[in-house]
Specification:
- By secondary structure, the chain is an alpha/beta fold.
- It has one domain: Alpha-Beta Barrel (TIM Barrel).
- It contains 15 helices and 9 strands.
- It has a 7-stranded parallel β-sheet.
- The two termini are 27 Å apart.
Length: 344
Protein backbone atom coordinates (compact mmCIF):
# COMPACT_ATOMS: atom_id res chain seq x y z
CA UNK A 1 0.00 0.00 0.00
CA UNK A 2 1.28 3.52 -0.77
CA UNK A 3 2.32 5.65 2.18
CA UNK A 4 0.61 8.82 3.32
CA UNK A 5 2.96 11.07 1.33
CA UNK A 6 2.46 9.25 -1.96
CA UNK A 7 -1.31 9.15 -1.44
CA UNK A 8 -1.33 12.89 -0.77
CA UNK A 9 0.69 13.67 -3.90
CA UNK A 10 -1.83 11.62 -5.85
CA UNK A 11 -4.62 13.85 -4.62
CA UNK A 12 -5.96 12.22 -1.44
CA UNK A 13 -6.85 14.70 1.32
CA UNK A 14 -6.32 12.73 4.53
CA UNK A 15 -6.93 13.97 8.06
CA UNK A 16 -3.23 13.60 8.86
CA UNK A 17 -0.50 15.47 7.01
CA UNK A 18 2.68 13.88 5.69
CA UNK A 19 5.90 15.76 6.39
CA UNK A 20 9.38 15.91 4.96
CA UNK A 21 11.78 18.84 4.91
CA UNK A 22 13.87 20.12 2.07
CA UNK A 23 17.57 19.53 2.86
CA UNK A 24 16.50 17.23 5.70
CA UNK A 25 19.62 15.15 5.02
CA UNK A 26 22.54 17.40 5.79
CA UNK A 27 24.59 19.70 7.93
CA UNK A 28 22.22 20.28 10.86
CA UNK A 29 22.54 16.57 11.77
CA UNK A 30 25.55 15.51 13.87
CA UNK A 31 25.55 12.08 12.22
CA UNK A 32 25.91 13.75 8.83
CA UNK A 33 28.79 15.93 10.03
CA UNK A 34 30.56 12.87 11.42
CA UNK A 35 30.22 10.96 8.14
CA UNK A 36 31.40 13.91 6.09
CA UNK A 37 34.45 14.32 8.32
CA UNK A 38 35.24 10.67 7.69
CA UNK A 39 34.56 10.58 3.96
CA UNK A 40 35.70 13.99 2.72
CA UNK A 41 34.11 16.64 0.53
CA UNK A 42 30.52 17.04 -0.58
CA UNK A 43 30.93 15.73 -4.13
CA UNK A 44 32.85 12.72 -2.84
CA UNK A 45 29.87 11.92 -0.61
CA UNK A 46 27.41 12.25 -3.49
CA UNK A 47 29.42 9.81 -5.57
CA UNK A 48 29.88 7.29 -2.76
CA UNK A 49 26.53 5.54 -3.15
CA UNK A 50 26.74 3.74 0.17
CA UNK A 51 27.50 6.98 2.01
CA UNK A 52 24.86 8.93 0.06
CA UNK A 53 22.24 6.30 0.88
CA UNK A 54 23.21 6.42 4.56
CA UNK A 55 22.87 10.22 4.56
CA UNK A 56 19.49 9.99 2.82
CA UNK A 57 18.26 7.63 5.54
CA UNK A 58 19.69 9.45 8.58
CA UNK A 59 16.80 11.89 9.07
CA UNK A 60 14.24 9.12 8.66
CA UNK A 61 15.88 7.09 11.40
CA UNK A 62 15.99 10.09 13.71
CA UNK A 63 12.61 11.69 12.97
CA UNK A 64 10.50 9.18 11.02
CA UNK A 65 9.72 11.55 8.15
CA UNK A 66 7.20 10.33 5.57
CA UNK A 67 9.58 10.84 2.67
CA UNK A 68 13.26 10.25 1.92
CA UNK A 69 14.76 12.89 -0.38
CA UNK A 70 17.74 11.68 -2.37
CA UNK A 71 21.06 13.07 -1.13
CA UNK A 72 22.63 14.55 -4.23
CA UNK A 73 22.90 17.96 -5.91
CA UNK A 74 21.08 19.75 -8.70
CA UNK A 75 24.37 20.34 -10.53
CA UNK A 76 24.84 16.66 -11.33
CA UNK A 77 23.03 17.34 -14.62
CA UNK A 78 25.51 19.90 -16.00
CA UNK A 79 28.32 17.74 -14.60
CA UNK A 80 26.99 14.89 -16.77
CA UNK A 81 26.72 17.32 -19.69
CA UNK A 82 30.48 17.85 -19.50
CA UNK A 83 31.10 20.85 -17.29
CA UNK A 84 33.58 20.51 -14.45
CA UNK A 85 32.07 20.84 -10.99
CA UNK A 86 33.85 21.85 -7.81
CA UNK A 87 32.56 22.76 -4.38
CA UNK A 88 34.93 25.29 -2.82
CA UNK A 89 34.89 25.87 0.93
CA UNK A 90 33.06 29.08 1.76
CA UNK A 91 32.25 29.81 -1.89
CA UNK A 92 29.76 27.17 -3.04
CA UNK A 93 29.74 25.40 -6.41
CA UNK A 94 31.87 26.43 -9.36
CA UNK A 95 31.37 25.17 -12.93
CA UNK A 96 33.73 25.47 -15.84
CA UNK A 97 33.95 26.36 -18.64
CA UNK A 98 31.37 29.13 -18.27
CA UNK A 99 28.93 29.10 -21.17
CA UNK A 100 28.88 32.88 -21.26
CA UNK A 101 32.40 32.49 -22.73
CA UNK A 102 32.22 29.06 -24.40
CA UNK A 103 29.83 27.37 -26.83
CA UNK A 104 27.49 24.65 -25.62
CA UNK A 105 28.88 22.27 -28.26
CA UNK A 106 32.33 22.57 -26.69
CA UNK A 107 31.14 20.34 -23.85
CA UNK A 108 31.73 16.60 -24.05
CA UNK A 109 28.97 14.69 -22.29
CA UNK A 110 29.86 12.23 -19.54
CA UNK A 111 26.56 10.36 -18.99
CA UNK A 112 28.20 7.76 -16.76
CA UNK A 113 28.29 10.45 -14.05
CA UNK A 114 24.58 9.75 -13.52
CA UNK A 115 24.94 6.03 -12.72
CA UNK A 116 26.11 6.37 -9.08
CA UNK A 117 23.01 8.45 -8.32
CA UNK A 118 20.78 5.64 -9.50
CA UNK A 119 22.75 3.26 -7.30
CA UNK A 120 22.04 5.51 -4.32
CA UNK A 121 18.31 5.42 -5.06
CA UNK A 122 18.33 1.62 -5.22
CA UNK A 123 20.19 1.35 -1.92
CA UNK A 124 17.74 3.65 -0.16
CA UNK A 125 14.66 1.94 -1.54
CA UNK A 126 15.89 -1.39 -0.23
CA UNK A 127 15.88 0.02 3.31
CA UNK A 128 12.68 2.08 3.34
CA UNK A 129 9.51 0.90 5.04
CA UNK A 130 6.42 0.57 2.80
CA UNK A 131 4.93 3.68 4.46
CA UNK A 132 7.85 5.89 3.45
CA UNK A 133 8.13 7.42 -0.02
CA UNK A 134 11.35 7.71 -2.01
CA UNK A 135 11.67 11.18 -3.54
CA UNK A 136 14.00 11.85 -6.43
CA UNK A 137 14.76 15.30 -7.79
CA UNK A 138 16.44 17.47 -10.36
CA UNK A 139 17.07 21.14 -10.82
CA UNK A 140 14.79 22.90 -13.28
CA UNK A 141 16.35 24.16 -16.52
CA UNK A 142 16.40 27.89 -15.70
CA UNK A 143 18.19 27.37 -12.39
CA UNK A 144 20.66 24.90 -13.91
CA UNK A 145 21.33 27.28 -16.79
CA UNK A 146 22.22 30.11 -14.41
CA UNK A 147 25.10 28.03 -13.07
CA UNK A 148 26.15 26.78 -16.50
CA UNK A 149 26.29 30.27 -17.99
CA UNK A 150 27.79 32.17 -15.07
CA UNK A 151 29.87 29.36 -13.58
CA UNK A 152 28.55 30.02 -10.07
CA UNK A 153 25.56 31.31 -8.15
CA UNK A 154 24.79 35.01 -7.98
CA UNK A 155 22.41 37.28 -6.13
CA UNK A 156 20.20 38.22 -9.07
CA UNK A 157 21.42 35.99 -11.94
CA UNK A 158 22.19 39.12 -13.95
CA UNK A 159 24.83 37.44 -16.13
CA UNK A 160 22.44 34.72 -17.29
CA UNK A 161 19.47 37.05 -17.66
CA UNK A 162 21.53 39.38 -19.84
CA UNK A 163 22.82 36.44 -21.91
CA UNK A 164 19.24 35.23 -22.50
CA UNK A 165 18.20 38.71 -23.69
CA UNK A 166 21.32 39.12 -25.81
CA UNK A 167 21.24 35.73 -27.55
CA UNK A 168 17.90 34.01 -26.98
CA UNK A 169 18.56 31.34 -29.60
CA UNK A 170 21.80 30.23 -27.93
CA UNK A 171 20.17 30.31 -24.52
CA UNK A 172 17.21 28.29 -25.82
CA UNK A 173 19.69 25.66 -27.02
CA UNK A 174 21.15 25.45 -23.50
CA UNK A 175 17.67 25.10 -21.99
CA UNK A 176 16.69 22.42 -24.51
CA UNK A 177 19.86 20.44 -23.79
CA UNK A 178 19.18 20.61 -20.05
CA UNK A 179 15.61 19.41 -20.63
CA UNK A 180 16.86 16.38 -22.56
CA UNK A 181 19.37 15.32 -19.93
CA UNK A 182 16.96 16.01 -17.09
CA UNK A 183 14.29 13.75 -18.58
CA UNK A 184 16.85 10.96 -18.96
CA UNK A 185 18.11 11.57 -15.42
CA UNK A 186 14.69 11.50 -13.80
CA UNK A 187 13.66 8.49 -15.88
CA UNK A 188 16.72 6.72 -14.44
CA UNK A 189 15.84 7.72 -10.89
CA UNK A 190 12.27 6.45 -11.29
CA UNK A 191 13.45 3.17 -12.80
CA UNK A 192 15.80 2.81 -9.81
CA UNK A 193 12.85 3.17 -7.41
CA UNK A 194 11.99 6.86 -6.93
CA UNK A 195 8.23 7.05 -6.34
CA UNK A 196 7.83 10.81 -6.76
CA UNK A 197 9.98 13.58 -8.21
CA UNK A 198 10.60 17.22 -7.29
CA UNK A 199 11.77 19.85 -9.76
CA UNK A 200 13.70 22.59 -7.94
CA UNK A 201 13.69 26.01 -9.62
CA UNK A 202 15.60 27.84 -6.93
CA UNK A 203 16.15 31.04 -8.95
CA UNK A 204 12.72 31.29 -10.62
CA UNK A 205 11.99 34.49 -8.71
CA UNK A 206 14.60 36.51 -10.60
CA UNK A 207 12.64 36.60 -13.86
CA UNK A 208 10.15 39.09 -15.26
CA UNK A 209 6.72 37.64 -16.24
CA UNK A 210 7.44 37.11 -19.96
CA UNK A 211 10.79 35.48 -19.23
CA UNK A 212 9.20 33.39 -16.47
CA UNK A 213 6.79 31.96 -19.05
CA UNK A 214 9.64 31.27 -21.47
CA UNK A 215 12.40 29.98 -19.19
CA UNK A 216 10.47 28.50 -16.24
CA UNK A 217 6.99 27.40 -17.30
CA UNK A 218 7.78 26.17 -20.82
CA UNK A 219 10.82 23.96 -20.05
CA UNK A 220 9.26 22.51 -16.91
CA UNK A 221 6.13 21.72 -18.91
CA UNK A 222 8.30 19.95 -21.48
CA UNK A 223 9.94 17.82 -18.79
CA UNK A 224 6.60 16.94 -17.19
CA UNK A 225 4.99 16.03 -20.53
CA UNK A 226 7.82 13.69 -21.48
CA UNK A 227 8.06 12.07 -18.05
CA UNK A 228 4.31 11.48 -17.99
CA UNK A 229 4.62 9.45 -21.18
CA UNK A 230 7.31 7.30 -19.55
CA UNK A 231 5.90 7.16 -16.00
CA UNK A 232 2.27 8.33 -15.92
CA UNK A 233 1.71 7.23 -12.30
CA UNK A 234 4.73 9.04 -10.81
CA UNK A 235 3.76 12.33 -9.11
CA UNK A 236 5.84 15.38 -9.97
CA UNK A 237 6.19 18.30 -7.54
CA UNK A 238 7.13 21.64 -9.06
CA UNK A 239 8.87 24.14 -6.79
CA UNK A 240 9.51 27.54 -8.44
CA UNK A 241 10.96 29.45 -5.49
CA UNK A 242 10.18 33.16 -5.57
CA UNK A 243 7.45 32.84 -8.19
CA UNK A 244 5.04 35.00 -6.19
CA UNK A 245 1.80 35.70 -8.02
CA UNK A 246 3.15 33.79 -11.04
CA UNK A 247 2.81 30.57 -9.02
CA UNK A 248 -0.82 30.11 -10.08
CA UNK A 249 0.10 30.19 -13.78
CA UNK A 250 2.96 27.77 -13.12
CA UNK A 251 0.57 25.36 -11.39
CA UNK A 252 -1.95 25.54 -14.25
CA UNK A 253 0.44 25.42 -17.19
CA UNK A 254 3.31 23.07 -16.34
CA UNK A 255 1.24 19.93 -15.72
CA UNK A 256 2.87 19.19 -12.36
CA UNK A 257 0.84 17.07 -9.96
CA UNK A 258 1.69 19.18 -6.90
CA UNK A 259 3.19 22.59 -6.34
CA UNK A 260 5.70 23.69 -3.71
CA UNK A 261 5.01 27.01 -2.00
CA UNK A 262 7.86 29.08 -0.59
CA UNK A 263 7.73 31.07 2.64
CA UNK A 264 7.13 34.43 0.94
CA UNK A 265 3.65 33.38 -0.18
CA UNK A 266 0.66 33.71 2.13
CA UNK A 267 -0.76 30.19 2.47
CA UNK A 268 -4.30 31.60 2.55
CA UNK A 269 -3.67 33.23 -0.85
CA UNK A 270 -2.17 29.99 -2.20
CA UNK A 271 -5.12 27.93 -0.97
CA UNK A 272 -7.48 30.32 -2.74
CA UNK A 273 -5.59 30.90 -6.01
CA UNK A 274 -4.05 27.54 -6.87
CA UNK A 275 -6.11 25.05 -8.91
CA UNK A 276 -8.85 23.41 -6.87
CA UNK A 277 -7.85 20.02 -5.49
CA UNK A 278 -4.18 20.33 -6.48
CA UNK A 279 -1.86 19.04 -3.74
CA UNK A 280 0.35 21.73 -2.25
CA UNK A 281 3.61 21.48 -0.33
CA UNK A 282 5.03 23.97 2.14
CA UNK A 283 5.46 26.55 3.41
CA UNK A 284 6.87 27.29 6.89
CA UNK A 285 9.71 29.83 6.96
CA UNK A 286 12.97 27.94 7.68
CA UNK A 287 13.95 30.77 10.04
CA UNK A 288 10.93 29.97 12.21
CA UNK A 289 12.30 26.46 12.56
CA UNK A 290 15.67 27.95 13.50
CA UNK A 291 14.04 30.19 16.12
CA UNK A 292 11.64 27.65 17.63
CA UNK A 293 9.31 28.55 20.48
CA UNK A 294 5.64 29.46 20.55
CA UNK A 295 5.73 31.33 17.23
CA UNK A 296 6.92 28.19 15.45
CA UNK A 297 3.85 26.33 16.69
CA UNK A 298 1.50 29.21 15.89
CA UNK A 299 2.71 29.59 12.31
CA UNK A 300 2.90 25.84 11.66
CA UNK A 301 -0.74 25.55 12.68
CA UNK A 302 -1.59 28.52 10.46
CA UNK A 303 -0.12 26.68 7.48
CA UNK A 304 -1.97 23.48 8.38
CA UNK A 305 -5.28 25.30 8.71
CA UNK A 306 -4.82 27.29 5.50
CA UNK A 307 -4.44 24.11 3.44
CA UNK A 308 -6.96 22.01 5.38
CA UNK A 309 -9.39 21.72 2.46
CA UNK A 310 -6.93 20.31 -0.06
CA UNK A 311 -4.19 17.65 -0.11
CA UNK A 312 -1.18 19.10 1.72
CA UNK A 313 2.37 17.94 2.32
CA UNK A 314 3.88 19.88 5.22
CA UNK A 315 7.32 21.23 4.42
CA UNK A 316 9.43 24.34 4.74
CA UNK A 317 9.38 27.20 2.26
CA UNK A 318 12.97 26.28 1.37
CA UNK A 319 15.77 24.15 2.82
CA UNK A 320 16.36 23.57 6.52
CA UNK A 321 19.16 25.77 7.85
CA UNK A 322 22.55 24.41 8.86
CA UNK A 323 22.28 25.63 12.46
CA UNK A 324 18.71 24.48 13.13
CA UNK A 325 18.51 22.78 16.56
CA UNK A 326 17.38 19.15 16.56
CA UNK A 327 14.83 19.91 19.29
CA UNK A 328 13.11 22.48 17.06
CA UNK A 329 12.58 19.85 14.38
CA UNK A 330 11.11 17.59 17.04
CA UNK A 331 8.85 20.45 18.16
CA UNK A 332 7.60 20.95 14.60
CA UNK A 333 6.98 17.24 14.11
CA UNK A 334 4.88 17.14 17.26
CA UNK A 335 2.69 19.98 15.95
CA UNK A 336 2.19 18.43 12.52
CA UNK A 337 1.47 14.97 13.88
CA UNK A 338 -0.99 16.30 16.45
CA UNK A 339 -3.01 18.13 13.81
CA UNK A 340 -6.10 16.27 12.63
CA UNK A 341 -8.32 17.64 9.92
CA UNK A 342 -11.35 15.75 11.19
CA UNK A 343 -11.29 17.77 14.43
CA UNK A 344 -11.80 21.11 12.70
Amino acid sequence: MPGLLLDTLRGKNADRRPIWLMRQAGRYLPEYRALRAEKGGFLALVYDSAAAAEITLQPLRRFGFDGAILFSDILIVPYAMGQDLQFLAGEGPHMSPRLVDHALNSLVAVPERLAPIYATVRRVVEQLSPEQTMLGFAGSPWTIATYMVNGEGSRDQHETRAYAYRDPAAFQAIIDAIVDVTVDYLDGQIKAGAEAIQLFDSWAGSLAPREFEKWVIAPNAAIVKRLKVLHPATPIIGFPKGAGEKLAAYARETGVDAVGVDETIDPIWAARELPAGMPVQGNLDPLLLLAGGAELETQANRVLEAFADRPHVFNLGHGIGQFTPIEHVEQLLAVVRAWNGSSR
